[in-house]
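> Could you send the Histidine/lysine/arginine/ornithine transport system permease protein HisM prediction when you get a chance?

Sure thing. Input:
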Amino acid sequence: MSVDVDKPAEPPASAPPAQPEPIKAIPVRHYGRWVAALVVIGLLALLVRAFASGKVNWGAIPEYMFNTDILKGLRNTLWITVLSMVIGIVLGVVLAVMRQSKNPVTKSVAWFYVWFFRGTPVYVQLFLWFNLGLVFQYIDIMPIYKDEWSDFMTPFLCALLGLGLNEAAYMAEICRAGLNAVDEGQTEAAHALGMSHGKTLRRIVVPQAMRVIVPPTGNEVINMLKTSSLVIAVQYYDLLQAAQNVGRDSGVVVEMLILAAAWYLIATTVLSIGQYYLERYYARGSSRQLPPTPFQRVKAKLAGPNRAGGTA
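Output:
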């Protein structure tokens, strides 16, 4: 015997869903960008027109580019920059450690040094070193050295002390900021493992602090290269002094100043490239994958079509 079971009624066939209309994306027009671009291009055109109409002997710039006096001044500029930064970095690290010390005497001395040298212009400090011979006739370090001040304080030494001691004050603050950026737990963990304070600083704290210290230090090196032009005040023969001498003797004063600016730009560009790769070196532990360098990006673009063509 069969029993009829009522089956549910099948729903009526529904119409297929309507296809959405394609979205018409209308880009936003940035009229301000076009106006700004036109203004900048106009100003650049006026600048080019002004120099083109001026009596500038552009041929003298490549002619004196590798002049013996210019290259000597450039060498002295680079030399005083390197030595001043060495003094600034070494003394800055010492001052930063003194600022971190619990000894109130060393901490106060370091604070006073930073306060004094950061609070007075480097131009004034250069003149101060240069004119100390008016106050001291001799320099007398009893068992080591004794000489007349004018013979001891040469233009090179004036420039070195004026730039290096001033830079040490800024490097002290940069190093102190880098040391403070390292978590205190790192130091506590190192001490718990039996490491001494010096070894902890050398093996644990400083390598991590370098990530913070390197970028501003690179900026300080570039700034030092440009600030070294102030040593003309103490009669040290640098790139600016050489450019002025050659320009005065050859009658192309403005052209030699443009040449000096070109050499400064070349030197700062090289230093900037070195700073970029040095920052990448110390940033290895901060990110899992570093962004590609400009050379790597160019290499990838050149190799991209070849690889695509090989796999096709």
